């Protein structure tokens, strides 16, 4: 994970340093009022805890690359910038760990996969220089997650199959998000940004559908939050104009 984050930081630094030289050679008026459309790529990690009736029995982090797009509009008043943004990202975040409570031998594996997330946020920023915006954001978030437990050893008692907790659940969870970032205009109508985001989902009951001849559905309480680091580009339909 650290290599991915460092790579994103290095890429953003390259854009910022290059644009600083270009701005010094040919200064231009910058304005942030307008709308934009862009793409992003980054890395995410989601600490995930599983518990049953208040007993935590396993935990892991779902990690992986994420990427998608964003759209929004900004309005600038003096050095302050206000805006609204929507973002949708696909994700390849996966993690797993052994459920030693069900099987001390470690054959039962609980796994988590996050396949996508979306946010709708307000943004509030300050231009530390005309082409550079520091901002915070916050709003609502939706995360698509899959959970799976497999495969509990078959238990036969007096020729009767014992209960199995093998199951799968696909859920879309709703939460809140906050984040902060730095965005810089580096060419007419183009800007680049780097951003950290946090999605709070908390703990909720997740219903698992049975698989592998398990007798019926069962419920676990799963606590999950998501961290993201993103590097992105925006094409701005405003900016580089007179205020």
From TrEMBL:
Gene3D superfamilies associated with the record: 2.40.160.20
InterPro entries: Beta-barrel_OMP (IPR027385), OMP-like (IPR051692), OMP/PagP_B-barrel (IPR011250)
Lipoprotein is among the record's keywords: no
The keyword Membrane belongs to this UniProt entry's keyword annotation: yes
Annotated signal peptide: 1-24
Pfam families (UniProt xref): OMP_b-brl
GO CC entries: cell outer membrane
Keywords in alphabetical order: Cell outer membrane, Membrane, Signal
Domain Outer membrane protein beta-barrel per the UniProt entry, residue ranges: 15-237
Main location: membrane
Location in the cell: Cell outer membrane
Family, per entry: Belongs to the Omp25/RopB family.
Official protein name in the record: Outer membrane beta-barrel protein
Species per Swiss-Prot/TrEMBL record: Bradyrhizobium sediminis
